[in-house]
């Protein structure tokens, strides 16, 4: 089902792109997380891809 609402589409894209990746286990965590939910490591990197960069 394609999303026609531009605002909803934007939110969906942000949910998909804005999260943190744990350095240790590679787990996906919410952007607000300070520690990994899997291994509780504090080292996480942001995954903030610019839209349209996907090949
Ligand atoms: Zn982790």
UniProtKB/TrEMBL annotation:
GO molecular function terms listed in the Swiss-Prot or TrEMBL record: structural constituent of ribosome
Record-linked SUPFAM superfamilies: Zn-binding ribosomal proteins
GO terms for biological process, alphabetical: translation
Domain Large ribosomal subunit protein eL40: 3-51
Keyword flag Kinase: no
Cellular component aspect of the GO annotation: ribonucleoprotein complex; ribosome
UniProt KW Ribosomal protein keyword: yes
InterPro entries: Ribosomal_eL40_arc, Ribosomal_eL40_dom, Ribosomal_eL40_sf, Ribosomal_zn-bd
Keywords annotated in UniProt: Ribonucleoprotein, Ribosomal protein
Identification of the protein by name: 50S ribosomal protein L40e
């Amino acid at each position: 089902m394609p999303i026609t609402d531009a605002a909803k589409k934007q939110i969906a894209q942000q949910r998909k792109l804005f999260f943190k990746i744990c350095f240790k286990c590679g787990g996906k965590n919410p952007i607000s997380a300070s520690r990994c939910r899997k291994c509780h490591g504090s080292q996480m990197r942001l995954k903030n891809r610019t839209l349209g960069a996907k090949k």
